[in-house]
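Hey, I'm writing a tutorial for new members on how sequence and structure tokens pair up, and I'd like a real worked example in the thread rather than a made-up one. If someone can provide the structure for the chain below, I'll link this post from the tutorial.
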Amino acid sequence: MSVALLPQPVDLRRTFALQSLGRTDPTASFPSDATFVKRFLREGEVVEVTCRTGEAGVWAEASGPGADALLTAWQRRLSAHEDDAARFAPKHPMVARLHQRFSSLKLWPMPWLFDVACGAVLQQRVTFGEACGQFARLAERFGPGGTVFPSAHTLREVPTFELRALGIDEQRARTLRALSKTEAEHPFLSIETPAPEVRRRLAMVPGIGPWTLGMVQGFGLGDPDALVPGDVHLPHVVCFALARESRGSDARMLELLAPFEGHRFRVVRLLYAAGLTTAPRRR
């Protein structure tokens, strides 16, 4: 089955940022700038989704059990998604320029929310490279064929010592197991679950704090106003980009983002799309 997701060009690499967790991710890839491929588990079965973009818009194809239902649900969710990019009219000159420049960057809800949530947990308190390696090792060690991230049922049964052997510290291992247990017993991380329910259930998982919740809201649910407090680098990036302040804090970042309420995560994504990933060091 093939469905039209959006009748306009989309920058797939930027729209699907962090859906492929680094170059070592065996579950997702960009064969080209116009193609994104993701393999994940849906109700215990492997599904592969391929998205392609062109002048006519974005099309998605899927294979595997329940693939047609998945694409239909995703298409329905996207059509109802309140991204509201067209109404975003920032007064900040630099943000306005970036919004125009990266108009093909979209904030979308993704169908593989369990993968997104586990990826966010793995990024807690470690470098991005370390998290990418651990995500890949989990897929290769416990996922079907080594190219799909393991299911919640599988991951909840993995002993903590085995997770630690893959480089995952005890605290993150406990959170992964708690998230997996919750999802296995009462599934909620799917494209069919309303976003408020996903947020409510996710916030109840031990070890899931505001940073992880914000990452899932932004990169998994496509929430244009998601906030990611507690990040090591983000306050410095935002404060330098918006106010030319070399160092920042969560409080100052929130103050600078306040005029963009409703689109605060969009501003962050625009800054990263422009390559503003670090602030200058003090001399």
